[in-house]
Amino acid sequence: MLDALRQIFRPKPKGRQPSVPEGTRFYVxxxxxxxxxxxxxxxxxxxEDDAQRGxxxxxxxxxxxxxxxxxxxxxxxxxxxxxxKKRKVRILAGNHEEMFLEAFEKPDVLRHFLKHGxxxxxxxxxxxxxxxxxxTLDELFAKLPQIVSQSERDYIAGFEEMIIAGDYxxxxxxxxxxAPIDAQKRSDMLWIRDRxxxxxxxxxxxxxHGHTIFDRVMDCxxxxxxxxxxxxSGVLTALVLEADQRQILQACDADGGIAILHGDxxx
Length: 267
Description:
Elements: H1 2-9, E1 24-29, H2 36-53, E2 57-62, H3 73-84, E3 89-91, H4 95-102, H5 107-124, H6 129-134, H7 137-147, H8 150-157, E4 162-165, E5 168-171, H9 186-191, H10 194-197, E6 206-209, E7 218-219, E8 223-225, H11 230-233, E9 235-242, E10 245-254, E11 257-263
Parallel strand pairs: 1-2, 2-3, 5-6, 6-8
Antiparallel strand pairs: 1-9, 4-5, 7-8, 9-10, 10-11
C-alpha cells in the first residue's frame, strides 16, 4: 500500500528538453541590419563567454538580414568574413540579402530595395549622400555593379537556407508548418510570417528564427524568435545553446555606449 502511494505522489520527471548535439555549443545571432557597432560588441562578448565556458565544438550562426536599414551593412559583411577566419561562423540568407542581390538584376527590385533600407546599404559601400541623391534610378542601376564587387555578391549568394542542430532548426523567417523540413520552399524560409507565427502545434524541430521583430526573445515552445530590432531598438540578441540549456547574450545601446546583458531571459 505504501509503495503504491509513493508511486502516486512521486514527483513526475520533466519531459526531455530540446538539446543540441553533445559537445557542441551554438551562438545564434538575430538580424543585425547594418549595426556594426552592436555586432562588434556582441562578437567580443561571445568570444569572452565561450572562453569562460570551456572546451566545446563552438559554432556561430547568423540568422540573415545582415544588411539594410542600419548605417554600415558593408562593415557587417566585412566583419563577418573576418570572424569566419577565426572560428566556424555559418550565415543564413535573409529576405534582405535576397532583395539586395536581385536589385542588380531588375530595376523594379532595386526601387523596392531602396525603400526598405537599401539606400543605407549602398551608401555603406562608399557612395556619399550627395552622390546617391544625384543619381536617377537608371543611373544607379547601371553603376551598382561597380559599387559592390562581384566577389562580394558571390559571397552573399553563398549564404545557407537552413541549419539543423540536434532538436533545433535555424532559419531566417520560419517554415511552412504544413510541410516537412526537407520539403521547405526558399520563399517561406526567407519571407514567411503569419502561417508560421500563428501555428501553435508542435513542429519537427524547435525553430530558431529572426525576420519578425519582438521587443524581447519570444519563446513559444515550438519556435524561438530572436530578432529584437537592432536597427531601431539598439538591442542585438544572441541565443546560446549548449546541451539542453538556453541563455541570452545581448548588446544594447546604453548612455552613449554599448552594454552587454547576460541571462536566462532577455529584457
